[in-house]
Design a protein that fits this description.
2 domains; 8 strands; binds NADP nicotinamide-adenine-dinucleotide phosphate; eight-stranded mixed beta sheet
Length: about 290
Amino acid sequence: MNNKTDTAVTVIGLGLMGQALAGAFMRAGHATTVWNRTTAKSDPLVAEGARLAPTIGDAFRASPLTIICVTDYHGVHELLRATGVELAGTTLINLTSGDSAQARETARWAEQRGAHYLDGAIMAVPPAIGTAEAVILLSGPGSHLEAHGSTLGALGTVTYLGPDHGLASLYDVAGLAMMWSVLNAWLQGTALLRTAGVDAVTYAPFARQIVTEVAGWLPGYAEQIDSGSFPAEVSALETDARAMAHLIEESEAVGVNAELPKLIKAMADRAIAAGHGGEQYPVLIEEFSRPRTD
Ligand code: NAP
């Protein structure tokens, strides 16, 4: 590798994602040390110039910044508790997928041992790592990022979310909630239109137009949620609920699945029963903010 920079990096965990992370650091010119439970997975990286640490303890000692990316937090803890692993003074960034409680608990554990710990989530597939499309979410004390922000930029677009270590995991699942909700709504519409011989490719541009328009409502609706005030500026929830009934009836009439519209209408009906029918759609945040109890 030419173009070497001063910042050495260690990558622990060389599955599909870990290999992509190490590869991106190497392409950006960082001296890269790697370690994996199954040593053979390091071969392609070593052939490209990565240094294989003989032990996981050596891997941590090799660089001021260590990235860990394995299957789950169980694996993270197994590795961090291994003999010879010294965390004091090191910056440890955990890009393993998990939930916010695991992130906070791991942060406490690592900080008690003197590590500068950041938790992260990767919103990308391995081939995108090293391009701007790869979004890397990070949370934890911002001061830990100061020394390593430009190094991490080799991985993609680094987005720092705040000091709470659980934020990266929460944003990760919030993003998935958005993704599946949009896709499920699109599939519902596609199923309806196919009953009239309209194929998915014909419907897709119309669906995309709706998604774009609805996305434009979010900032104003978010202000209503944050202020706790939901005046019906363009439509009242009970108007939406009538349209939901129409969607259910149409789905049943043409023989497509009506489960999803029924679920959404049930939530709207509960909000209306609680007296919110004259307010605007984001008032449903009350339904989303607590488990169903009835
Ligand atoms: P993978 O290809 O299945 O690799 C898993 C890695 O974890 C391997 O290096 C494996 O070591 C290691 N590992 C698992 N349990 C371990 C343990 N108990 N002790 C030591 N090492 C252990 O998975 P991946 O695709 O790289 O995913 C890694 C993480 O990235 C996951 O949390 C995943 O959710 C996240 N992620 C992946 C993608 C993606 O598209 N791949 C996208 C976003 C986020 P061995 O080689 O020895 O088995």
